[in-house]
Amino acid sequence: MKAKQTIRKKSWVLGSNVVVMLSLFLIAFAGVLRANEPEPDSARAVVSYLQQSVLQAMREGEQMRYSERVKFLTQVINQTHDIELIIKTILGATLWHELDASEQNLIIETFRQLSIATYAGRFKQYNGEQFEFIEQRDLPRDQELVRSQLIKSDGGAVSFDYVLHQPAKQWLIINILFDGVSDLAIKRSEYRSILQREGFQSLIDMLNVKIAEAEHSE
Length: 218
Fold this sequence. Notes:
This protein is α+β, with helices and mostly antiparallel strands. The protein has one domain: Tgt2/MlaC (Nuclear Transport Factor 2, Chain: A). The chain is built from eight helices and five strands; from the N terminus they run ααααααβββββαα. It has a five-stranded antiparallel sheet. α2 packs antiparallel against α3 and α3 packs across α6. The longest helix has 35 residues. 20% of the residues are buried.
């Protein structure tokens, strides 16, 4: 009888220890998960929202038509990018102020359409790619840098580094560097050259051509 009681007691103690150990493991694991999650309203959270939306568009690329991807990504881009500041920075203060109000509004909206079209046309197939966060750090002028990589199915990686600012409560992307190359710098050289050499309408025409090319990349 005593032997049975001893066995039951040992079993109960062992079971209790297992429960305690499992509980501690789950608490620790939950802490790791929380550590890997971006803080709400942070610059990293904005980048994460963009990247997860892009991956969703890629996963559903075979089912979603181009127009559906555009519709899906329009809200995402508007919530994560400061389109107006980006195009102002690309053109520079002097050229920007040479445009009248209607021209400024037209180029903002045309550039917005191009930005959305570029995402919709480029990110349309999924082969197991995943974004991996590297770091977030402060930059001068109250800006933040969020560094990440797109890990491809073959094990290769492409660096996606985002520069963000916070004009109000929301962090917004103002530049993206692909493998260290600034998208802002590339567009600055191209857009300013066309605007100065050929005029405003030629720049709008060029942007519209790129929008059409994104659509026809299906």
